[in-house]
Amino acid sequence: MIKNTVTTIGGATRDIMFYTDDMLLLDNKQDLLRQKLIAFEYGAKIYSKDVYFTYGGGGMNTAVNFAGLGIKTQTVLSVGDDLVGTEIFRYLKSKKVNTKFVQEHKKIRTGTSAIVNVGKYNEHVIFAYRGANNKINLSPERVKRINTSWVYLTSLSGNFTGKLNNLFSHCANKKIQIAWNPGSNQLKLGLKKLAKYMKQTAVFDVNRDEALELLVSLEDGKVTNNINYILKSLHKYGQKLTVVTDGHRGAYLYDGEKVYFKAAKKRAGINTTGAGDSFGSSLVAGLIKYKWNLDKSLKLAILNSNSVIMKIGAQEGLLTAKDLKKYKL
Fold first, then answer.
1. Cβ atoms of 109 and 13 closer than 8 Å
2. What are the pLDDT digits (tens) for 54-109?
3. Using CA atoms, how far apart are residues 147 and 174, in angstroms rounded to an integer?
């Protein structure tokens, strides 16, 4: 096994970033799982203040971040046999990400997302076409080639249950540590079905709404929106570290003994896309670089996610290893 290297697994997309103020933000607090809604006039034409074409997808975002922070990185992605797929190969190589496990599929398009950014904190809604991401191959024959010390797993689409079984089984056999930021499809399984994977996970990373969704799936009617309750309830499922991000307020980490918190910088960002990917992968990069110093790792994660939201796209604002000295990291 190669020391201090990471394999990221997840999506790769072409992102179209759309900015508008021509909407309403609606409070919906009676629904614990959909507390904020965005409304547009039915039948209207909505104009964008700006539009940008960037790259995204959890597997790709995290790979670029790890590599930029000086961690040797390979990635398992799935792209189409099209121009966007070719561009993604070229881009990853320019970022020093090993692409030997990137899969190319014939007669299917590379994933594409339209991202609408609205409101004071430029929170977003993503309209996603998964495309080739649905075809990612995590068969036993494929995953047995992964020999890194960490796997960073993001959202999987399509028929993913067998893929999870193959990956977690291989990592358990090879003693590979898993950091997991599950996607919406995985979260829909609920805590009862996710539990067997969580107990094999080193870092389990979700946002506050996702954490509530998981707890409601098992304890409907008994869940309170209290961060200590959320952290300790999730941590019962066996992961080493439980991480809950809380948007523009900051992030929490619980190791079973102590709750760590880092506040976000008090400045308005222009784009929250990719903030979760930069946060989670930076946290794991910190665990690798700083030998499980949780305070320093959480500081790096907050700094990098704050940097990302100040630039357009999920990767433009990422800090690099050279940037860390000024933050005493």
1. no
2. 898 999 999 999 999 999 999 999 999 999 999 999 999 999 999 999 999 999 99
3. 8
Continuous H helices in 136-245: 140-143, 161-174, 184-187, 190-198, 208-219, 227-235
> Is the Cβ–Cβ distance between 23 and 39 less than 8 Å?
yes
Which homologous superfamily does the CATH classification assign to the domain defined by 2-12+58-112+131-327?
Ribokinase (3.40.1190.20)
Neighbours of 267 (CB within 10 A): 9
3-state secondary structure 90-140: HHHHHCCCECCCCEEECCCCCEEEEEEEECCCCEEEEEEECHHHHHCCCCH
Q: What is the DSSP letter of 82?
A: S
Which tokens hold the place of 320?
């690099």
What is the distance between the alpha carbons of residues 281 and 322, in angstroms, rounded to a whole number? 17
> Residue 272 burial (CB < 10 Å; 0-12/13-18/19+)?
buried
Selection from 62, 52, 65 nearest residue 115 by Cα: 52
pTM, 2 dp = 0.88
Q: Put the strands of the sheet holding 241-245 in their side by side order.
A: 72-76, 2-9, 148-153, 177-180, 203-207, 241-245, 250-254, 259-263
Residue bearing tokens 């999920």: 314
Q: How confident is the model at residue 215 (pLDDT cuts 50, 70, 90)?
A: very high
Sorted by where each begins, the domain ranges of the chain are 2-12+58-112+131-327
User: Do residues 58 and 154 touch, judged by C-beta distance below 8 A?
Assistant: yes
9/118: higher pLDDT: 9
The CA-based diameter of the chain, rounded to the nearest angstrom, is 56
Q: What are the backbone dihedrals phi and psi of residue 126, each rounded to the nearest 5 degrees, phi first? A: -110, 125
How many residues are recorded in the chain? 329
Greater pLDDT, 205 or 265:
205
Q: Between the CA of residue 137 and those of 96, 216, 246, 324, what are the distances in Å? A: 23, 31, 32, 36
